[in-house]
Every structure is written in structure tokens, then in C-alpha cells.
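> Could you send the B-cell receptor-associated 31-like protein prediction when you get a chance?

Sure thing. Input:
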Amino acid sequence: MTLYYSIVFALLVFEMALFLLLIVPLPFTWRRKLFQFLATNPLVAKAQYALKITFIFVAILFVDAVQRMYKVMTEGETAKDRRGVQDVRTETNYAARKFYSQRNMYLTGFTLFLSLILSRTYSLILDLINTQEELVALKKGAKPISPSVEQKYKNEIEILKKQANQQQQEYNRLSDELNKAQGNVSTKKD
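Output:
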């Protein structure tokens, strides 16, 4: 493997370790301190900037790997169409070039894909931390219901109960009148 693909592989391993660090279940205070450190440390900011530039080069390597893989595949198709005398060394050489081009494409592609997953996971965890902090602040700032508000709700509930009873009585009276008018009077007494 060439030097730059070795660097891409090391970057992929670093991304996997970072992803595992992000998703490991930590207590809320530890996670908040970790993300506060990541957000405020100037060295981390410089490292993020360097990684962004590195991902530009990885994207270029990905495009190159796709082009090489396409080139190797078309060469293989033309070799199958010719069906001339084929040497074992030629077939082995073709299989090795095909393997290397596919490996390089998958390596760079997975590295880019994992970088997208990392950025999305990081932003989701930041949103989760902010929401948890807001929840804690709301719980601390929440005041118990005052007696006057509680009495107001009790009064409203009593009024609603009276209205429901009155409506039920009116419904019963109207249904009795309708039954008498239609001649469907029940002989049962309540």
C-alpha cells in the first residue's frame, strides 16, 4: 500500500476510534465536560481544520480510485472481448490491479462516509447536551402551582361538572319527550 493510502487507513482507524468514543455511554456531566473541552480547546480547533483539508485530499484520492477502478474494469471487458491467448501472469496481473483499485476505492469511500457520520453524530450529541441542560434549568426554575391558581382550576372543574350534569339532564328530558311523541314509552321506572 502506498504512503498516502496508508495515511488514509490510519485516518479511518482514527475515525472509528473517535466514533466509538462519541457513542460510548457516559454520565451527563462527563459528556458535557468532554464536549465543552472539544468546543473550546484551540488545539482541537486546529486539528479539525487540518482534518478538513485532509478530507479534501481524501476526496481527490476517492475520485482517482474510482477512475482507476473504471479503467481496470474496461480493460478487463476488452480483454474478454478479444479472447486471444491469455497468459496466467496476465490474468494474475489483472486480478491484482482490480483488487488494488477496488480496495483503494472502498478505503477512501468509507473514510469519507465515516467523516459524514462523525459530523452528524457530533451535532446530534451537542443538541442532546443542550436539550438536557435546558431541561435541568427548567426543572430548577419551575415553581410549584400557587394556591390561587390551584383554586381557580378547582373552580373551573366544578363548573364543568355542573354543566355536564345539566346537559345530561336536558338530554334525558328531550329523549323522554321524543319517546312519548313516537309512542315508545317505557313502563320501567327509574
